Amino acid sequence: MSTPANYTRVPLCEPEEIPLDVKRENEFGKLTSQKYLHQVESLHGRPLQKTIIDAPPYYISLLTYLNYLILLILGHAHDFLGVTFQRNKHLDILERDGLAPWYSNFESFYVRRLKMRIDDCFSRPTTGVPGRFIRCIDRISHNLNEYYTYSGSTTMCLNLSSYNYLGFAQSEGQCTDAAIESVDKYGVHSGGSRTQIGTTDLQVLAEKLIAKFVGKEDAMIFSMGYGTNANFFNAFMDSKCLVISDELNHTSIRTGVRLSGAAVRTFKHGDMEGLEKLIREQIVLGQPKTNRPWKKIIICVEGLYSMEGTLCNLPVLVALKKKYKCYLYVDEAHSIGAMGPTGRGVCELFGIDPKEIDVLMGTLTKSFGAAGGYIACDKWIIDRLRLDISTASYAEPSPPPVLAQIVSSLQTIIGDISPGEGTERLQRIAFNSRYLRLGLQRLGFIVYGVADSPVIPMLLYCPSKMPAFSRMMLQRKIAVVVVAYPATPLIESRVRFCMSASLTKEDIDYLLRHVDEVGEKLNLKLGSGKSSVDGKPQRWDIEEVIRRTPEDCKDDKYFII
Amino acid sequence: MSILQVNDTSIPDVLPPSIPIPNFIVTSFSFIWYHLYTNILRIPGGPYIIHYINKSYDDDPYRTWVEIGLVLYAIYYYLSKPRQKKGLQSNRPKLSPQEVDSLIDEWQPELLVENTELSKQSWRLASIPEIVDGGIDTHIDLTRNFGKERFNNVFNMASNNFLQMSKWPEVIELVKKTIKNYGVGACGPAGFYGNQDVHYTLEYDLAEFFGTEGAVLYGQDFCVASSVLPAFTKRGDVIVADDQVSLALQNALQLSRSTVYYFEHNNMESLENLLAELTDLEKKDKPPAIPRKFIVTEGLFENSGDIAPLPELVKLKEKYKFRLFVDENLSIGVLGATGRGLAEHYGMNRATAIDITIGSLATAIGSSGGFCLGDSVMSQHQRIGSNAYCFSASLPAYTVTTGSKILELLNKDTVVVPQLQYLSQLLFNFFTKDLQLQKFIDVTSCINSPILHFQLTEEFRRARFNYSSEELFETISTLQKRNVTDKYIEPYENEEKFLQHIVDTILTKHNILITRNTIILKHETLPIVPSLKVCCNAGMDTQELQSAMEAIKASVLECCTTAN
């Protein structure tokens, strides 16, 4: 408990004294009925249809812009008055003792004047396992989120925010046991860089398992997912190489490419015709100024886009890559483990041999409940990369408990330990994702993405609806993540539900009822029916949705894929 | 009078009284105008538009024509196709579709990764030790050469868990307890429910331990510098860096977008000259706002093992209004009487001396991850502006509780850090005072470094491999200028192989593991030479260390005196 002296600090919470079975149930809800499972089928090489993006009525777009306009005007007025009359409160943006401020007035405007207003929706401190429920530490905001005070109490919330796709965030079960055992055998320290001392038999085992799981000859594991991408491209790309990148690729990929010095061209998200045109043009034009041909061209895409819930169009990409002799890099940060009939990611979902793809990258944070990232390629490539990737020679490798978690969760998915459990988890996340997605669509919300995506972004549009939605959900004990510009286009603020296998069907019913109610209050039911199967606006009654959707959601005919 | 008369009569002869416009045009225009007029009157605000046009035409007829021209141009501009952006690739050749197809057919890309030199460098892969049947402790079992060689109970002088505190029973107990309560992964970035109470607690603990206002945690030590520095710099900012900084900092400098200048390694005169010059330059340029200016250096240098002269640096930074950025990945837990790093080593106050400190939890502290220390405004800005913080999952809970626990232990402990320093000094004195070794090796590390770095002397390098460190750097620079990234330099490769031969000899003959400083030449942009590292840690037995040093000496001498 916190004392008055440090009540502005996040208190360290003691774990609750609860019986073991309750704790288990809180981390991973038991399956309530065999009906609530769904086995994903492979698409057998069929490419994706063109996605139809639903748009809100014009007045909503207009109001959204107006919303921003008011915020901007007020912000600038605030800044002007503040700097003129309250200098001591704005020291962070003023020059002091001949030193420039840490950040300029202009650069930090968005953060200080817009994000600060809704800061209480972000970085909510939590404690315990981020499983089916997450324990949020209660805080009271003061002075427009300038600081918070903590009473020391906590609230259990339904967790739609953590990347816990397969529900391996647990403190009970075989994975936790394996992690704890590894502490006894290996300790917690990773020794030093991989090429000097950090390679252990556990590392090698985990790498072999990953390689086998994703269907590649060899793999390398790194201790941080962001760092995997950020220090990958400079191992084999230079300024005479070209990276063709989807415009929505993650910052880590962009940082990595920038570090390599390679030239970058972007194509519109998911626009395969545009991509082909761009490749043709670039092969003909070659390097800028000199017009010499590019040394190599690599196409970078993500398997599942975490802000959109959309997939890369893998069959088309593979065909293009073969036709034009480019290389293909797929970042499966969100799709590995969570998608495909047996969790092997987008390749399996599309029914494409992983050997067709040159580099498969993924993270171990999301589906496996561990931390870090991996790169999987042919053996001769990995052999070269082991010597050339800077992280392997300069950075810390993954520590033993994390590796043990990776190994045990992978073996669970494959079925080597606790047979049947992995399949259940996969079928549960597939059902849960489809149920929530179809349920939201039927209620009339605008939802982006493909049927099987465990990331379900629901559009809010007005920036002021973000904090409203987030706070109202928190009152209803549901933890959600809201995202806005710059992670999304300016007017497309959204809430992102991250589905998990640990949720039960009843949890999703609870969620749907509350989203329905809040959505009604905030005027969020804006779907025009453009992206629904029958083309009509959907405004189903909540009871009807809960009664019919669990069966319907298993059928592809209700989704546009 | 008569002249006027003549003029009056001559005009009608030349010009008709009015321009003859065909009647149907006049009537159709009047018709259109009439309907347009009535329609405009009908739309709300229409009469005002008509009134405005009338009035402005009355006041200034030319203005109306200009405005009509502008409206027409706006319509034309809106309808015309956007022109191609003028970029670097604007010199587009006009090619027929056949020519395009043949160009595309012709194009042969290089392999994804270069593989011609792989066979020549496969010895590097074979020399990586794989620790088997247990953790990375003071004594380890290992295999090499893809499992073909096996060594048991090897004395480990290669790892950087200097304090060895993370294997203390109370820490292990805490780790298990944390995993039992929190699981392993944090399953989310800090901004989205990923930061747990334990993360905040470690941040408070770090700030308290090092005496700064704030601390921010990162997922991996290598990523911290390249994320923190670019969060505060932009084009036009100035960075002055030591010319032997580690690769992590080189990456940070590259990503910073700023103008980077280098001063000679730990040479304060060189730094001062540079700073003075830059200040003069700024006075001449008179930029509208003061640019952000940083001095970037390392606490304990990763590639040479010596330490930065903090008092002088602080004096200079205050004099020239720079901020000081120090990478303390290796010096945290090592320097200073209680392991508080470079500032404590020089008896200075970290909060005022160093503006940004970055450190590692994965070296002496013995956990995982990295952190950044500084004032609260700077710390707060990282939480929204620093990529590796915003876009990466938080550290696993057990790693942060381990961190907190070790800081708590360091606060109470009076034995471990001095013991480490004692062993470091032993190591340093042995290798620097030995006259036989001096002929062949140069020790570059300082007396307090638990990693002893040594490299071959220039004379020996010249005699054995027929090149010098300057030549190496020149070759690297020329290759860089020519944009060749796959650097394969024969004498360098031979020297590396020779150093590995020393490592192998020590391992096979004496069962002791030391390591080469495994640098990757293609990434390094600053002067560097191959070197060997011998690490000690606080858990080592003095006797065993003594005999290990003797053994290393014997092997080095043996390898250096036998001809190849």
UniProtKB/TrEMBL annotation, chain A:
GO biological process: ceramide biosynthetic process; sphingosine biosynthetic process
Catalyzed reactions: L-serine + hexadecanoyl-CoA + H(+) = 3-oxosphinganine + CO2 + CoA
UniProt pathway annotation: Sphingolipid metabolism; Lipid metabolism; sphingolipid metabolism
Alphabetical list of InterPro entries matching this protein: Aminotrans_II_pyridoxalP_BS, Aminotransferase_I/II_large, AON_synthase_class-II, PyrdxlP-dep_Trfase, PyrdxlP-dep_Trfase_major, PyrdxlP-dep_Trfase_small
GO CC terms: endoplasmic reticulum; membrane; serine palmitoyltransferase complex
Main location: endoplasmic reticulum
Keyword Coiled coil: no
Cofactor or coenzyme needed: pyridoxal 5'-phosphate
This protein's UniProt keywords: Acyltransferase, Endoplasmic reticulum, Lipid metabolism, Membrane, Pyridoxal phosphate, Sphingolipid metabolism, Transferase, Transmembrane, Transmembrane helix
Name of encoding gene: NCAS0B04340
Subcellular location as annotated: Endoplasmic reticulum; Membrane
Domain Aminotransferase class I/classII large: 157-514
Protein name: serine C-palmitoyltransferase
Family: Belongs to the class-II pyridoxal-phosphate-dependent aminotransferase family.
The EC number(s) this enzyme carries: 2.3.1.50
Gene3D superfamilies (alphabetical): Aspartate Aminotransferase, domain 1 (3.90.1150.10), Type I PLP-dependent aspartate aminotransferase-like (Major domain) (3.40.640.10)
Organism listed in the record: Naumovozyma castellii (Yeast)
UniProt keyword annotation of Iron present: no
GO MF, any single term: pyridoxal phosphate binding
Automatic annotation (TrEMBL), chain B:
The entry's keywords: Acyltransferase, Lipid metabolism, Pyridoxal phosphate, Sphingolipid metabolism, Transferase
UniProt-listed InterPro entries: Aminotransferase_I/II_large, AON_synthase_class-II, PyrdxlP-dep_Trfase, PyrdxlP-dep_Trfase_major
Pathway this chain belongs to: Sphingolipid metabolism; Lipid metabolism; sphingolipid metabolism
Cofactor(s) required, per the database record: pyridoxal 5'-phosphate
Listed SUPFAM superfamilies: PLP-dependent transferases
One of the Pfam families matching this protein, by short name: Aminotran_1_2
PANTHER family: CLASS II AMINOTRANSFERASE/8-AMINO-7-OXONONANOATE SYNTHASE, SERINE PALMITOYLTRANSFERASE 1
The protein's name in its UniProt record: serine C-palmitoyltransferase
Organism: Naumovozyma castellii
Lineage: Eukaryota, Fungi, Dikarya, Ascomycota, Saccharomycotina
The encoding gene: NCAS0F02130
